[in-house]
């Protein structure tokens, strides 16, 4: 049972906010003609492209699909290496490995948990193709520095912006900071489509290839003319003929989900404002607790506050603190076990100790509940619980 002795509902670390307009938007698509590959997909992409400050947006079925499609679009192939942060969801790395790439993990900045450029620079080899930043907890990575490194070493700069849609870096939106950016619309992310994701880019080729990868590599129209033998000339003129010129998968996102996404984007600013207000409330109330580090935001950045991650100064106390918070009905979480510590990566030859800052960060981290629907009363419950657990175990 909980410390307080009564069963208050568990406050998850993150969850969606769905209103009547969202429901109505979905119902309208269900009553219409296009359940998939219709106008809602294009409208959602246009809105993402505008908000993310990128010429193209390619909406797909998940953030993982977005990473996979983007890696394929850059031509990542066996023998190519990419460098990313271990403080991320596994998909940032696994999608690249499934595409045949080799992943190297750079250590992170001790304050933000974002990839550290000097550590990344030390891993560059002649086979390195791309640098993949992850905007941990919604705080954009240090893009000016990463851009310089990418230019000097002739690397593609990519961003896994799954945490950070709506954030800005020196006034520029996430979506416009790298050569291409992936987003996720899982229910815990800034806006949701249930499951969904997107690739944002100014690069025409990446957009084209990601779009093709999303749909089995299928090419239609004037570009689909590479075969000639056995094709009646009239077939080209009729609409049945298409060619598969590269491999792809079905990563399409239905109109049903894009309608939800479009409706959610109407409230993007309100969602971000609420997350910021809650983060400020936590900081105000918890900032003085000794032995507990609060997240901070660089002055040239506006965070999307996907997560509010506190860190216990004494590593050995983290699990007791975490368990106590869970016992009081907080659905706290740890983001993340450094990716290479998962057994599958050990089997691939990765070893503990590779990124000591990331390992230390992860060993001390606890993500508190943070989402737009969290009320002031909920937030005060979180604050009370953290203060109680702090007194008890820190
Ligand atoms: C959520 C997330 C993903 C994967 O997105 P899905 O939509 O769940 O496939 C990838 N990277 C990061 C950093 C994420 O947080």
Query: So how many helices?
Result: 14
CATH C-level label of the largest domain: Alpha Beta
Tell the overall outline. Answer: globular
Low-pLDDT segments, ≥5 res:
none
CATH architecture of the largest domain: 3-Layer(aba) Sandwich
CATH homology superfamily of the largest domain = Type I PLP-dependent aspartate aminotransferase-like (Major domain)
User: Which percent range fits the helix content?
Assistant: 25-40%
CATH topology of the largest domain: Aspartate Aminotransferase, domain 2
Chemical compounds bound to the protein: pyridoxal-5'-phosphate
Count of the separate structural domains: 2
Structural class: alpha/beta
| Rg, nearest Å | 22 Å
The N- and C-terminal alpha carbons lie at a distance of 21 Å
Strand order of the main beta sheet, please? 2-10-9-6-5-3-4
- Nearest-integer average pLDDT: 95
